[in-house]
Amino acid sequence: MTKSSEKKLKREEKKQQAKRRQQLQKSLVTAFVVLMIPIALYVFYQGLFGGAPVYPPDQIASTDHVRGEADAPLTITVYGDFQCPNCANEATLIAQAWQQIGQRSRLVFRHYPLDTYPHSFEAARYAEAAGRQGMFWELYNMLYSDQGSWAVLPDATVAFEDYAAQLGLDIEQLRADAGLPEIREKILADQRGGNRAGVRSTPTMFFNGEIMANPRTASEMIQMVNEFLSE
């Protein structure tokens, strides 16, 4: 074989190799697209139909727990965890300040259970279940006021059901409701909304959608409300 023939053969081999690489790349792209289409469709339809909707802090949902005047000029939205000690402290000071701020404010509580605490999610489930019997805020108060007792238990559900019994709730119904998928999704939706709004820890407080520093005392809470409404 002459040198010119060898060169021609090598050029032809390189062309064939390049063509095979192109065909392989096209095949990989096609396979990737075919694989991703059903995944994309699944994510799309999950976004449309799967899970509870997410609301920003200044927008009240029909599933939210709200106390205070419906036409109040200030909406205080708190993302909290029932087992978080700082959340319990803030709930206490809000309660102490409420006589001074309640006529001008409405309080919205949204769940933000942290992985740090083992009973957080279960406490949120029971609070939501109590809400189905019209007793969300009553159980909310008991969970926070007695947090030091149930937070250290290996199984806190006994304590949750004891509080519910003290409130006169239907315990069998409470248990059934606490296990509902829609209650779980409501809690997760609160958490997703908090993430979108910039929540990174608990408690996190918003005034009319504006993130605020956490007050340290009831008087500081009152002052914050007064200053915010005077702007």
From TrEMBL:
<feature type="region of interest" description="Disordered">
    <location>
        <begin position="1"/>
        <end position="20"/>
    </location>
</feature>
<feature type="compositionally biased region" description="Basic and acidic residues">
    <location>
        <begin position="1"/>
        <end position="16"/>
    </location>
</feature>
<keyword id="KW-0732">Signal</keyword>
<keyword id="KW-1015">Disulfide bond</keyword>
<feature type="transmembrane region" description="Helical">
    <location>
        <begin position="27"/>
        <end position="45"/>
    </location>
</feature>
<dbReference type="Pfam" id="PF13462">
    <property type="entry name" value="Thioredoxin_4"/>
</dbReference>
<comment type="similarity">
    <text>Belongs to the thioredoxin family. DsbA subfamily.</text>
</comment>
<dbReference type="InterPro" id="IPR012336">
    <property type="entry name" value="Thioredoxin-like_fold"/>
</dbReference>
<keyword id="KW-0812">Transmembrane</keyword>
<keyword id="KW-0676">Redox-active center</keyword>
<keyword id="KW-0472">Membrane</keyword>
<dbReference type="InterPro" id="IPR036249">
    <property type="entry name" value="Thioredoxin-like_sf"/>
</dbReference>
<keyword id="KW-0560">Oxidoreductase</keyword>
<dbReference type="GO" id="GO:0016491">
    <property type="term" value="F:oxidoreductase activity"/>
</dbReference>
<keyword id="KW-1133">Transmembrane helix</keyword>
<protein>
    <recommendedName>
        <fullName>Thioredoxin-like fold domain-containing protein</fullName>
    </recommendedName>
</protein>
<feature type="domain" description="Thioredoxin-like fold">
    <location>
        <begin position="62"/>
        <end position="226"/>
    </location>
</feature>
